[in-house]
Amino acid sequence: KKEASMANLYDRADIYDLFENEEKYQAIKRHWAKILEGREIHTLLDVSIGTGSLTLPAAELGVTLYGSDLSGGMLAKCGQKLKARGLSADLRECDFRSLTEKFSETFDCVGSTGNSLPHVTNEDLQHTLEQMDALVKEGGYLYYDMRNWDKILAERKRFYLYNPMFVEDTRVNLVQVWDYHGEESMDFHLLYTFEKENQIVQKEHFEETYYPVRRAAILDKLRQLGYQDIQAMCHPAYFEKVSADEADWYCVVARKSNIPHTL
Predict the structure, then answer these.
(1) Distances (CA, A) of 155 to 50, 233, 251
(2) What is the rounded distance in angstroms from the CA atom of residue 174 to the CA atom of residue 51?
(3) Rounded to two decimals, what is the model's pTM?
(4) Of 6, 14, 114, 258, which is most buried, counting CB atoms within 10 Å of its CB?
């Protein structure tokens, strides 16, 4: 039996992707089809691409994909996924707080997927948005998706449960336990158990710190940067009957003005 471990989930791409499957992949593809609808987006940079689960489907829709991530291991797994699907992307290891050190080109859309932005403080987030904006073409788009932190802070739930899934003859269970530190930060404990023949054969414990960010704070920053047509939607975006306020996870698409701005 394997003992429990305390580590960063982003160093364990094998476990990070356990709950991914083809049905979820196709759902994300439908999501991107909705985001791309009516928008001239031919090049997309995801500044927190991870293993690519939330972005690779866009490449199948004809978008030229670029990606960056702080984790080399996650990028390596992303590269494997791209190859398996016959896709390609320009991947670069980079902290999204210093994007302009790795990228000099601009893109039709610069985005952050997977609730990645709250990994940094709200102050660093403001700077990150400026870095993302620097890579967006005039008239292009800035995109992000994340957990609904306003809802989380209002409801203050302690447990977040996932439906179990199976890997061959092993049942995998995941429970998140949330510790609140006022409204300034939160610790997420991710508890995985692996069962065979009604016995737990492996346990994994990961801890992640997040800095809750109010949606209004991000939208205010986007307006300061000169963004217009700011649209907040449920994630995935084709769940049109669920508002961004009600959703556990939401996304925002905003169009950059053609008129240069000054901060």
Answers:
(1) 29, 20, 20
(2) 19
(3) 0.93
(4) 114
Q: How far apart are alpha carbons 201 and 88 in whole angstroms?
A: 37
Radius of gyration of the chain (CA): 18
pLDDT score at 201: 96
The rounded Cα 226 to chain-centroid distance in angstroms is 23
pLDDT reported for residue 5: 44
CB 79 within 8 A of CB 59: no
183/211 Cα distance (integer angstroms) = 8
Question: Residue 260's pLDDT is what?
Answer: 58
CB atoms within 10 A of CB 101: 10
Tokens linked to 76: 């390596």
Q: Of 92, 109, 100, which Cα lies nearest the Cα of 131?
A: 100
Buried b (16+ CB within 10 A) or exposed e, 41-68: bebbbbbbbbbbbbbbbbbbeebbbbbb
- Spell 119-130 as b/e; 16+ CB within 10 A means b: bbebeebbebbb
| Both structure tokens of 53 | 């689960």
- What span, in angstroms and rounded, lies between the C-alpha atoms of 140 and 254? 8
CB 212 within 8 A of CB 149: yes
Residues in the chain: 263
